[in-house]
Amino acid sequence: MTDNNPQNATTLFDDIGGAPTIDRLVEVFYRNMDSMEAVQGIRAMHAADLRPTKAILKLYLAEWLGGPKNYSASRGHPRLRMRHARFPIGPDERDAWLLCMNAALEECIENAMARGMIGKQLAGLADWMRNDPQNAHDKAH
């Protein structure tokens, strides 16, 4: 993965194959959302035309994984919870999102170590995104 020499350092973005892999990951993620019966509740939260949403997620994931900073340059700070506040996100929505994403990771990321690291980080992020009254993240403050 990464090494301690900054001139030779790579990122998860590099390790998984860069933008082409991110593009494929997002396309497969939304294909899963369109095709999995169990996730139709979260699919209904999205517009019929997913092209703008796909473009944003591609920018976000690329930057989040250490790639180009194009998301921040075009949209500013992610403010993910604020941007998703209008949607009810509880354990069921988190799990549905992760079902789609984990299946996409499995299909698109060959490197098992990178896939596991990304999956673990996304699971934490998905849990943090919950805005239901039982979200332990909100009760701690």
Q: What does this entry look like structurally?
A:
The chain is mainly alpha-helical and about 140 residues long. It has a single domain (about 10-135), classed as Globin-like, CATH 1.10.490.10. It has nine helices and no strands. The protein is globular. The model is unreliable at about 1-5 (pLDDT under 50). Keywords: Heme, Iron, Metal-binding, Transport. Belongs to the truncated hemoglobin family. Group II subfamily. InterPro entries: GlbO/GLB3-like, Globin-like_sf, Globin/Proto, Hemoglobin_trunc.
Which CATH class applies here? Answer: Mainly Alpha
Largest sheet: none
Distance between the termini: 35 Å
Q: Assign a percent range to the helix content.
A: 55-70%
Strand portion, in percent?
A: under 5%
By DSSP, the count of extended strands is: 0
CATH superfamily: Globins
What is the typical, i.e. mean, pLDDT? 90
Order of helices and strands: HHHHHHHHH
Radius of gyration: 15 Å
Summed up, the helix count is 9
CATH topology: Globin-like
**At CATH's second level, what is the architecture?**
Orthogonal Bundle
Indicate the overall shape.
Answer: globular
Return residue spans where pLDDT drops below 50 for at least 5 consecutive residues: 1-5
How many separate domains make up the residues? 1
* Derived structural class: mainly alpha
GO molecular function: heme binding; metal ion binding; oxygen binding; oxygen carrier activity
Keywords: Heme, Iron, Metal-binding, Transport
Protein name: Globin
Organism: Methylocystis heyeri
